[in-house]
Amino acid sequence: MESNQIEQQKQQISQLEAQVASLKAQLEDALTTAGAQGGRRKKIEEMSAEVIDSNPYSRLMALKRMGIVENYARIRDFSVIVVGMGGVGSVAAEMLTRCGIGKLIMFDYDKVEIANMNRLFFRPDQAGMTKTAAAEQTLRDINPDVDFEAHTYDITSIDNWAHFLDRLSKGGKNGQSVDLVLGCVDNFEARVAVNKLGQSWMESGVSEDAVSGHIQFIIPGETACYECAPPLLVASGINEKSLKREGVCAASLPTTMGAVAAMLVQNTLKYLLGFGEVSYYLGYNAMTDYFPRYAMKPNAECDNKDCVKRQEEYKAKLAAAPKVEQKKQEEPAKPKHETNEWGITVVDDEDEEEEVQVPVAKAQEALPDGLVRSFDAAKLDVKAGDIVQTDDALNLDDLAAQLKGLSS
Ligand SMILES: [Zn+2]
């Protein structure tokens, strides 16, 4: 063997040795990070408020000490269904998992694609897996205390409908019905299917141009249902499938989807744990950062006959026992923070939530044929004559005297 050949082999050996050392270090690093349970922490029997680094619930349980939630640990009694594990549903599922929801039942029939990577939650190495399997994999690692159930099918198909209804009525904790359904689907058909359940559910959606979205809490008979006024971009009388053309896809942003998922889960937490005010309709227009919020009355001429029936039932119930206005949460007597080093003050929002009739969808430019946008950013068109002059110097007695003068 010639000496330069030996020299080459020596070099190769030292290169290989360096590679082995690097791989060894990576492996050790991975094993240390994963810990003794192979990457998954042990289940925790009871939620504790103890402030230690190893408690995954200390920050959530602190909501009680801050006077926000009376009993946070109750979250373990609740079960939620998420229909559609796309850009909104998967993020909503992760938020609920991190919050320690009792049970999460997921439905989706799609697979993870590399084209989904502009959104949150799924990873490139999960491409090709079903969204349900990939989600379960990730979520179990994040919080093994949650009971997970995942079903890989289209809920709108007749074959699956009976099973879906079964999970709805018996899939909750201890075989009870689930507490809430979150609709995170991307098509009209599936939304109408969930709407037909005749149970309280929260709908969500993001527009095809990726810059607006909304959530809607639907209580049959009491608030507008999905068919009373489909709130987002929908096909106006034309076949939805015809909108999907080869080489053309809807736009999506992780920001808008994350914001809508957060709005949806925040509303869910408020509803389940009883804090703050639950929103019936909350929109988000990213172009102007406009968040319209209102309660929508059901449409007496709704296409969904069950909805009309439930409206009659609700009216009868209301006539028999008028609904007591829910008392707004009282301001705490003491400030929640002892010190306020930045001098932050809170501006009171005096605007009462308005109840509006179902808005009439308005056609707009720059949208494909057959699509309408459900809301526009508020435009203020104030004329000089509309402005009312007020005088702070006047007291109540002065005003009363003026009123008397007017009426006499
Ligand atoms: Zn309706």
UniProtKB/TrEMBL annotation:
The keyword ATP-binding applies. GO terms for biological process: protein ufmylation. Keywords: ATP-binding, Coiled coil, Metal-binding, Nucleotide-binding, Ubl conjugation pathway, Zinc. Residues 6-33 form a coiled coil. InterPro entries: ThiF/MoeB/HesA, ThiF_NAD_FAD-bd, Ubiquitin-activating_enz. SUPFAM superfamilies: Activating enzymes of the ubiquitin-like proteins. The keyword Coiled coil applies. Pfam families: ThiF. Residues 57-303 form the THIF-type NAD/FAD binding fold domain. Residues 347-356 have a biased composition (Acidic residues). Residues 324-340 have a biased composition (Basic and acidic residues). GO terms for cellular component: cytosol. One of its GO terms (molecular function) is UFM1 activating enzyme activity. Residues 320-363 are annotated as: Disordered. PANTHER family: UBIQUITIN-ACTIVATING ENZYME E1, UBIQUITIN-LIKE MODIFIER-ACTIVATING ENZYME 5. Belongs to the ubiquitin-activating E1 family. UBA5 subfamily. This is Ubiquitin-like modifier-activating enzyme 5.
